[in-house]
Design brief:
The protein has 417 residues and is of the alpha+beta class. The chain folds into 4 domains: 93 residues, Rossmann fold, CATH 3.40.50; 59 residues, 2-Layer Sandwich (Dna Ligase, domain 1); 129 residues, D-amino Acid Aminotransferase, Chain A, domain 1 (2-Layer Sandwich); 90 residues, Phosphoribosylglycinamide synthetase, C-terminal domain (Glycinamide Ribonucleotide Synthetase, Chain A, domain 4, Alpha-Beta Complex). 29% of the residues lie in helices and 26% in strands. It is built from 13 helices and 22 strands. The strands form 6 sheets. Strands 3-2-1-4-5 form a 5-stranded parallel β-sheet, sandwiched between helices. A 5-stranded antiparallel β-sheet has the order 12-15-18-22-19. A 4-stranded antiparallel β-sheet has the order 6-9-7-8, with helices on both faces. The radius of gyration is 20 Å and the shape is globular. It binds glycine.
Length: 417
């Protein structure tokens, strides 16, 4: 099977690594990929958000399967164009991708499906802002109502900070979503979905704030671990039954069935799980940890979704242990990152690339905010954390930073429901 992966992040590097381990996968291509994916796949300098360019590339490489990593091409309909051209695609249609692309659509689907989520209001004019803020908080949750790679969310007990972020979004012409704050530890549950068939992967937890002890602004994600030792037995099944399957059924009922990866971001409160957000694709960096534990063949698994045969797939198999991923970020991330610095030690085991490229001399240099994802695996969280941080110690990038506490609260038994 020849597989083309669209995207350039750590998530796509993890997908390519997983695909490379599947004996049925004979050839790998990435567009555009990064300096790390170049050792697994042929990188093509093609814009993944251009449907025409991606279809042309899929034809050129005679792809048997196209896997779309990021949300932007999905929301823009790249999966639809590929399907119309006769390709098997892992990733939802533009209409189904609205579950991530439009917060209003997601809220409407959840209301119709009877799924618990935060109360929300859209504000699209500065004149409405103060009155709307009075109807929420503290704590205030202010989201840019567009695709903002996680960085468009501010969660704060400070009304002035909430107001400033909302005003900033409005000034840039983006409506703002105000939400009630959902208390409780967060879970990312990734589910393979093919119409109304739902198969969950292992649950993971992301660390969204830039600094240790959840200090500082939100990022796209600074690290993650899987599985979750504190999650009660049966909770994954409860989330599938009460949240993901009803949403998948509602999308199918509307004539826009979901095919791909439906990511439920949840807070587990005193009265059960509530949805923080849905995404229409694998999460980053959780994917780097989750796929590290998957022993089932990834190509066959994604192909089953793409060809509408998920219901015939054998149960997924996993390593019996834990995985941890720590993100190495460039100086000043999540602000405008410094780029162009030389990275050393970036070719070791478990070192996945995201914001990297090869310079004219063939050196690996930084080219984005989240530069590398370093993964460790072990029989438990302590061993996985130790391996991840050990591997990270071998990587050097001037000015870079990372969190030292990924998975630590769970390892120390400090997360409870
Ligand atoms: N880990 C957060 C995201 O992928 O959106």
């Amino acid at each position: 099977m020849r597989v083309l992966v669209i995207g350039s992040g750590g998530r796509e590097h993890a997908l390519l690594l997983g695909l490379d381990r599947d004996p049925s996968v004979t050839e790998l291509h990435a567009a555009p990929g990064n300096a790390g994916t170049a050792s697994l796949a042929t990188n093509h300098q093609v814009d993944g958000a251009s449907a025409d360019a991606v279809v042309a590339l899929a034809r050129e490489v005679a792809a048997d399967l196209v896997v779309i990593g990021p949300e932007v091409p999905l929301v823009l309909g790249v999966a639809d164009a590929l399907r119309d051209a006769g390709f098997a695609v892992f990733g939802p249609s533009a209409q189904a991708a609205q579950i991530e692309g439009s917060k209003a659509f997601a809220k409407d689907v959840m209301a119709a499906a009877g799924v618990k989520t935060a109360r929300a209001e859209i504000v699209d004019s500065p004149a409405e802002l103060d009155a709307a803020l009075d109807r929420f908080g503290p704590t205030w949750v202010v989201k840019d109502d567009g695709l903002a790679a996680g960085k468009g969310v501010v969660v704060t007990a400070d009304r002035a900070a909430a107001r400033a972020h909302a005003a900033d979004c409005l000034e840039n012409g983006h409506p703002v979503l105000l939400e009630s704050f959902l208390d409780g530890p967060e879970v990312s549950l990734f589910c393979l979905v093919d119409g109304d068939t739902v198969v969950p992967l292992l649950p993971a937890q992301d660390h969204k704030r830039v600094g240790d002890d959840d200090q500082g602004p939100n990022t796209g994600g600074m690290g993650a671990y899987t599985p979750l030792p504190w999650l009660p037995d049966g909770m994954v099944d409860q989330i599938v039954d009460d949240v993901v399957r009803p949403v998948a059924a509602e999308l199918a009922e509307r004539g826009t069935p979901f095919s791909g990866l439906l990511y439920a971001g949840l807070a587990i409160g005193a009265d059960g799980p509530a949805v923080v957000e849905f995404n229409c694709r694998f999460g980053d960096p959780e994917t780097q940890a989750v796929l590290d534990l998957l022993t089932s063949p990834l190509g066959e698994t994604l192909n089953a979704v793409a060809t509408g045969t998920l219901d015939t797939l054998p149960p997924l198999q996993w390593f019996d242990g834990s995985a941890v991923v720590v993100v190495l970020a460039a100086e000043n991330y999540p602000g405008t990152p410094r780029t162009g610095d030389t990275i050393t030690g970036a070719s070791g085991d478990g070192v996945l690339h995201a914001g990297t490229k090869l310079d004219a001399d063939g050196h690996i240099v930084s080219s984005g905010g989240r530069v590398l994802s370093v993964v460790g695996r072990g029989k438990d969280l302590a061993e996985a954390r130790a391996q991840a941080y050990d591997r990270l110690a071998g990587v050097k990038l001037p000015g870079s930073h990372y969190r030292t506490d990924i998975g630590l609260a769970a390892e120390e038994g400090r997360i409870s429901l």
